[in-house]
Amino acid sequence: MNTGRMARTEKAVRLTEEMMTYREDVFRICLGFSRNPVDAEDLSQEVYLKAFRKIGTVHEPGALRVWLLRIARNTCLDHQKKKRLFRLFQRSVTPGDARENPNQHEHLDTRERLAKLKAAVRRLPGKQKVVFVLREYGHLSYAELAETLGLKPGTVMSRLNRARKAVLDCMTEGNDEK
Fold first, then answer.
1. Separation of alpha carbons 114 and 119, rounded Å
2. Tally of structural domains, the chain
């Protein structure tokens, strides 16, 4: 019995060590969804807490990255739902709150482009947004995307293509220069 417990413990330690090598990937995915470094850090920690609790469910070390990034995606999507519900509740309780007003004028062009990019990503339909964020911020390959999302590679490619086109269209919207 002791040998079995030791083997499980050693496996959990190996998986935990491997899991920690994906910290940057998890953070980038969380940042891609949250668009806020502080929230992304909090979400990353939440991802790892969830993963540590379920580490025993991973049977193949090679599947660890995909498993972990799936947890990241689901955690971020859950966070977005909660945030949306909170905003709806807040509006119903305190209508007419003052909006954020950035006062800094330096780097205005860069901030405007970044704001346009954030808005473009926010406008993407859910399925396209997930593929776009996982690819562009998580740097997943097409095969990893397909495996993580449970889709065929062709579906991943078409969703990503549509998402990129929509983001580009949104970014160039209103520009007179072409």
1. 8
2. 2
